[in-house]
Amino acid sequence: MRDLEQISKGLWVYREYTKLFKEAGLDSIEKICNFQGGQLLNKKGLASFRKRVRFELDGKTFYLKLYNHAPCKLQLQNWLDHRKKAPLAKYDMGPIEKFRAADIKTPKVIAYGAKTGLLFEKISLLITENISDATSLEKATPSFFDRSSDEFDISKQKDFARDLGKFAQRFHNLGLRHRDFYLCHIFWGKKAGFYLIDLQRVFKPIFAYRFRVKDIAQLFYSSPSSVYSRTMKLRFYLSYTNTRKLTAQDKRFLGKVFSKALKMKRHDLKKSRSIPFEN
Fold it and tell me: Residue 46 contacts by C-beta under 8 Å, 6 or more apart in sequence?
């Protein structure tokens, strides 16, 4: 939080934006909680104690994540998972310094705030700046994968797969696991490269191998086979493991990855959801 400045009790704002937030009347946790501007980003399954808002100030777009009286059980579980006590919004920031050192881009944190009781938090919030130079890979596939486009380019596809592999490798080499490592949480831009978002569940597990399987399974599962071929996924994996061909150990690992993906498929079929990696 070295780039943030405390402007009121429990609230820190990025130094370049303190004046902007004060002028907008967003200079306390209470005022941000009661803010009526912006667009409420509701989605199916979002817990009642969570709130997500997209809003604009001075032509810039921001996203607010708010946790309001989160269940004590959930807070305890997060303390155990992360092996440290912190407000829920603090986990959304992730280990910023580690990410910077590993060249892993994440959304720019503009504000952070927390209000706690004797033991548990009452409210915590995080405001990030919109990623303007990249888009979610779930929403937009790079144009060089589109066979109907003049930009279709197999050479660029290969570079993309290798770069994504190195990106995932750098992240996992930190000993961290995402637990929601789907394409919707990976942003990409031609010049910007890759970003990783939705960091609330990122943690350093004791059983790292198990969660490594889960992360890669989630990535493969969310990658439509009509866009990302088996060859492209293999190229990603070889780059991720920094090898030239699969070893017996790699084959065992990938077997567990595909087994996990099949479990995810069965779960989604029960929920009548589409199966991404079969599309």
Answer: 52
CATH of region 137-278: 1.10.510
Which residue matches tokens 């597990």?
A: 205
Mean pLDDT, 10 residues at a time, the chain of 279 residues = 90 96 96 94 87 96 97 96 94 89 94 95 97 95 93 96 98 97 97 95 94 97 92 97 96 97 90 76
Q: What are the domain boundaries of the chain?
A: 4-129, 137-278
The answer to whether 109 touches 128, Cβ cutoff 8 Å, is yes
Q: Where are the alpha helices (DSSP H) in the chain?
A: 18-23, 29-33, 72-82, 88-93, 96-101, 154-173, 208-221, 230-241, 248-270
Cα–Cα dist 174/157, whole Å:
26
Residue range 4-129 forms a domain whose CATH class is: alpha beta
Provide the 3-class DSSP secondary structure of residue 246. Answer: coil
* Exposure string for 87-103, b = 16+ CB within 10 A, e = fewer: bbbbbbbbbbeebeeee
